[in-house]
Amino acid sequence: MRTKYFRLRLALAALVALTLPLAGPHAAAQTTPGSIHGLINDPTGAPVKGGTVSMYQGGLTSPTEQAKYTFPVGDDGTYKGTGVAPGSYTVVYRAANTPPDKVVDQFDNVKIVSGQDTEQNFDMSRQAYLEKMTPEQRKQIEEMKQKNAAILKENAKIKNLNGDLHTARSDDAAGNYAAAAALMQKDTGIMPDAAVLWVELGIAQRGEKDWADAVTSLQKGIAMDKADKKPHPDLEGSADNSLGESLASLGKYPEAQAAYDAAAQEDPSQAAMYYTNEAIMMDRYNQIDATVAAADKAIAANPNGPIPYYLKGKALINKATVDPKTQKIIAPPGCLEAYQKYLQLAPNGPFANDAKAVIQEMGQTQSSSYAAGKKKH
Q: What is the rounded CA–CA span in Å between residue 188 and residue 48?
């Protein structure tokens, strides 16, 4: 369960409403319609969002004159108008908060030709527009351009890192752990404060069985995410799950148990899976009591998961004794019930034969309700 965690936005400069000179009369309109379209950029060169483009045939002669045509500007800074009578127009752009008697930008003598589409862009980064601003306004625009350039550069870097993250996860899924680890090692050097990169590096190192390095990377990623203003519980849960395996493989069983507990607390929706993984690891390293404890936690989180019951029975059978008279196995409390429950939930499961054999050695009769059904033909 991973998600993507890099997001940045471009800062947009505030548009400056300028009072421009009113235009004089222009040519009379014809009758066959044309159309107009264009893109509107603010003084930093970024597309504006919203506002209107209005057209005044014969020029804008009064601040309160009614426009002949008005078209909305989209969120991407584009506009389009159709059904425009041919002729010469003054075309103006107003932002949503521009007063009716002012305009943000204006072009005079824009020709609409019968049956043709006219492109009229509003590029407010042009020198003629900037010259109408005060020195302080031009300074602010330059600062905003520099800031936007830095953000664009950072966005490009993050786009590349996200691509690497996707590649590393695909490599992990295919078992190409060395390639994933090398890629994430490079990327943690580029952006050392990104928790997700350290977690992904640790997961790849775990796949390579480089347990000690995996522990270091995973712990670093977890600590970074916890310190983040918006931590990601699913990332931390996944990291602690991998940390538990790495610590258990180093023989640090209490620390591994704590990691699995942390994973379940961080991402409760996956608690059953994390506790089942803990039971598997404790069983792998013959930690009998720890296996039973983890299995019980997994069963509490999901009573319908068969594997924890089997692992619990398998661990408890290690504490069984043999009746000297009958030579039958005397299992500790809960062992038989665990095997029987496993068979109830998974009568055709991968450990069904083993569970049946142990039950038989205990001298118990297996319930028919637990037996695997006959194959249907």
A: 36
